[in-house]
Amino acid sequence: MPSATMTTRRAGQAPVRQARTPAPGLFLTLIAVCSAVTAANIYLAAPLLSLMADDFGSAPSAVAWIASVAQLGYAVGLLFFAPLGDSANRRRLVAGLTLVTTVALGASAAAPGATALAVAMFVASATTVIPQLLVPLVAERAPADRRARHVAAVIAGLFTGIVGARVLGGLAGQAFGWRWVFAGAALLTLVLGLATSLVLPSRRREGPLFAGLAALPSVLRHSPDLWRACLRQAGMFGAWSALWTALSLLLTGPAYGLSTATAGLFGLFGLTASAVAPLAGGFVDRFGAARVVRSAYLLAAVSVPLFWLGGHAPAALFAAAIAIHAALVASHVANQTLALTATSTPATANTAYVVAGFAGGAAASALGGAAFSHFGWSGVCAVAGLWLVLGWGLTSVRR
Predict the structure, then answer these.
(1) Quick one: CA dihedral 96, 100, 27, 84, positive or negative?
(2) Contacts of 59 (CB under 8 A, 6+ apart)
(3) Taking Cα atoms as reference points, which of 22, 45, 194, 47 lies closest to residue 121?
(4) For the segment 144-170, what is each residue's pLDDT rounded down to a tens digit?
(5) pTM (2 decimals)?
(6) pLDDT < 70 stretches in the chain
(7) Are residues 193 and 97 in contact, defined by beta-carbon separation less than 8 angstroms?
(8) Minimal CB count within 10 Å: which of 14, 144, 166, 321?
(9) CB of 41 closer than 8 Å to CB of 124
């Protein structure tokens, strides 16, 4: 990767002006850390639901929908912003999205009620799509025989951010209040987002700005591999979202009676994801994506009954948390690598893939919250199992 500022021209593209970038390893690390911080923004609400409910004078189950709004906002943001990676100046785009996200997180910290918080969280989540603008760049620059491993490094950062949102968010929320968690997230997003934008290549490709968005239906229709990756990850991510969103309600409820901070520590089991990502990347490079996804689905299927037993048995809940995170990240590494290489427009294909995943996650999260209110923890586990069946069953027959 060039270390000095330079300008080049590629066939069919406008001039490329390379920023003064760090060494490849440091560059990849910066992108992974930025992905961790920005991904955490989507999940800040999950460990803080009980504190928000107390502040707003409502039951925890009555504010669980805020976590779903955040995921829905992320899916909407991906649909409109992520395809711009194929046509817009990434450096300016990342900087602009960073500023909007920072303002929206600040508004979340000052929200007077649940509705205002939900609106601010929707905007913050819609503009915190920076990781999905960076992953196609990483895949594009990686050697072909190590592409999955490079993608896995960014995914490891992303899942570390998700875990950090639950663990550190819960601890900080208990100590300082949930509003300070959002204020701290705004500051971290501003610093990491702008630092990352400064080292990105400044390139604008030829063609209409929203050509990628317009091409989405055609790209999906002509790429069965992309279509399959989208649906399978929607099923996997939906199962995880249903369980992980409602988990804080289980842990802080009568069954366990834990404090918000203690329940947040449960997210440490999610560090499994960070450890599994590099291994999954190596397996994809060696054995192919299909075999890794199949193994991940089998592991997730085992985790669902363990989660059900974990409603009253902590040991089963611990084992289930490790299994579902390992399954999710292995599936994600394999499916996203497949999506990025399935077409000649990686940013557009990545948009379809991640939107499908988060749409599935938002729907399952919302249904899981409703199931918890009406049927308890068993209802949440049923929703997770249903999403796995749909994700695999809809793609098991060749088109």
Answers:
(1) negative
(2) 53
(3) 45
(4) 777 777 787 787 777 778 777 777 777
(5) 0.69
(6) 1-25, 60-61, 85-88, 202-216, 260-261, 264-265, 267, 270-274, 397-399
(7) yes
(8) 144
(9) yes
